[in-house]
Write a structure and sequence with these properties.
This protein has 238 residues and is an alpha/beta fold. 32% of the residues lie in helices and 23% in strands. The relative contact order is 0.18.
């Protein structure tokens, strides 16, 4: 049973990624390449199209993972310094609500992902059916990732509790101690339960000194492709 569910999940990811790439990637584009397991399928399809159709694509990574994906698939690697305006950003999400607000950062790359997304003309999200919710916090139970300056860890925990959250310092799996982001910061996972007003919550968190950014992506996504259990892809448009 577990094997079957996992197979459906992977099929959903792949179908969503392929459809998103085929409907949005065009010749001579500068692409933002997001992070996560679903993006792997997107990069595979981008590389196939780029090779066959000579699309002359340029790719900007959001993480070490996506940097490696770009290099491994022989795509042209460029930087935000070279191309500060991005045509299209393809990324995954931990959860998507009805208004295309997102929770991201389960993989720890939220700051880079938000920088790339905010400098893109269009943010396309690819995900499987588990990530689709009416409200943020309904399906994703690990909380909102918040990247913080390490020295602020203890007071920030207290301030986030006053906002109604239950913060947990994300701990590393292969080393003793906390996860350290690509930027050298800590990540708190803050459980707020079901989030009725993600925009307001995001602004409140961002006003706390020591917060670098949050995993709440508000009014950034233009379209989301959700791979369903039956193999079809649900398209959500802003």
């Amino acid at each position: 049973m577990i094997f079957l569910v996992n197979k459906l999940i992977e099929k959903g990811k792949k179908n969503a990624a392929i459809k998103a790439v085929e409907e949005n990637v065009k010749k001579n584009m500068v692409l933002g390449i997001g992070s996560g397991s679903t993006v792997v399928y997107a990069v595979e399809r981008i590389a196939e199209m780029n090779s066959k159709e000579k699309l002359n694509l340029k790719c900007i990574p959001t993480s070490f993972q996506s940097h490696q994906l770009i290099v491994e698939h022989d795509l042209t690697l460029v930087s935000l310094d070279q191309f500060p305006e991005i045509d299209l950003d393809i990324d995954g999400a931990d959860e998507i609500d009805m208004d295309l607000n997102l929770i991201k950062g389960g993989g720890g790359c939220l700051v880079q992902e938000k920088i790339i997304a905010s400098n893109s003309k269009k943010l396309v999200i690819v995900a499987d059916f588990r990530k689709n919710s009416k409200k943020l916090g309904e399906n994703w139970k690990k909380g909102v990732p918040v990247e913080i300056i390490p020295i602020s860890y203890v007071p920030l925990m207290r301030k986030l509790e006053k906002l109604g959250g239950s913060p947990t310092l994300r701990m590393a799996q292969a080393k003793a101690g906390p996860v350290v982001s690509d930027n050298g910061n800590f990540i708190l996972d803050v459980d707020f339960g079901v989030i009725n007003n993600p925009k307001e919550l995001n602004m409140k968190i961002l006003t706390i000194p020591g917060v670098v950014d949050t995993g709440l992506f508000i009014d950034l996504a233009s379209i989301a492709y959700i791979g369903k259990e039956d193999g079809n892809v649900l398209t959500l448009v802003k």
